[in-house]
Amino acid sequence: MIQDGLKNSPRQNHLINALPVVEYERLLPLLELVPMPLGEVLYESGEKLRYAYFPTTCIVSLLYVMENGASAEIAVVGNEGVIGVALLMGGETMPNRAVVLSAGYAYRLREYPLLREFERIEGNHGGALLHILLRYIHVLITQMGQTVVCNRHHSIDQHLCRFLLMCLDRLPSYELNLTQELIAHMLGVRRESITEAASRLQMARLINYRRGHITVLDRLGLEEQVCECYQVVKKESDRLFPEISQVIPLRPRILTLGKPERHEA
Predict the structure, then answer these.
(1) Are 80 and 233 contacting, i.e. CB atoms less than 8 angstroms apart?
(2) What radius of gyration, in Å, describes the C-alpha atoms of the chain?
(3) Residue-range domains of the chain with CATH
(4) How far apart are the first and last CA of the chain?
(5) Strands of 175-177's sheet, edge to edge?
(6) The pLDDT of residue 121
(7) 192 exposed, middle or buried (CB, 10 Å; 0-12, 13-18, 19+)?
(8) 128-152 residue pLDDT tens
(9) CA distance 30 to 230
């Protein structure tokens, strides 16, 4: 895999970075760098997808929204993945909402060039994108399945630990600006439950929480407190993508999160 030092590069996305050089160079002119503002809705439930998004420095939350407006997060996607798997599987739409949870950038690819590349088979390098994306879909399904199990069987404290660790895995930061209301919205629980869980984690000196600002003081401690669901997904991702190494950040970065808003083009 090629590592380059550009501030914004498609290689910052692990799936694109796993491509052979030949396929990467063929895709490069087709990839469009786009800003991903906080709260931008990439698609709503039932909307036809026109792009696949490969995040580099942002995090996108996949939410299922009920008829009464209640919602719960079913997966998060960062630089390890892609948004728009329905395009890859012929469905064209998804029954969930995709909203930017942490602002940054992504590279997007239009539907037709993606499908054309998906079907390409040329020599030893043909179809690499197909196999990489199918492996990622496997990981995403695993994450969604474990989220269901976690929500049903594990404590609020464990839910919160898993949420924080998943955010940390996708951005080089130990500091997060998170309101209790937002976390409750993402996890589908009462705000009071998050207040109590954050207080317990702070008393255990795992985090410092003040006015919506969370500093993770002991990541290993969070990993000891989190339920098995976090490790199940991580191990499956590591198994399917052994070429992708997790790098511990040298410098902190603040992750800013807020309520989703519909972005007008």
Answers:
(1) no
(2) 18
(3) 10-256 (2.60.120.10)
(4) 35
(5) 207-210, 213-216, 175-177, 254-256
(6) 60
(7) exposed
(8) 888 899 999 999 999 998 888 887 8
(9) 34
pLDDT tens-place string over residues 150-172: 878 888 899 899 999 988 888 76
Type of residue found at 88: L
Q: What is the pTM of this model?
A: 0.83
Query: How far is 53 from 259, CA to CA, in rounded Å?
Result: 21
pLDDT digits (tens, 9 = 90+) for 225-238: 998 989 999 999 98
Q: Are 167 and 255 in contact (CB under 8 A)?
A: yes
Each residue of 174-215: pLDDT tens digit? Answer: 877 677 887 887 787 888 998 899 999 999 999 998 877 888
Q: Is there a contact between 129 and 82 (Cβ–Cβ < 8 Å)?
A: no
Structure tokens at 134: 């199918």
Tokens of 182: 């937002």
AA letter at 225? Q
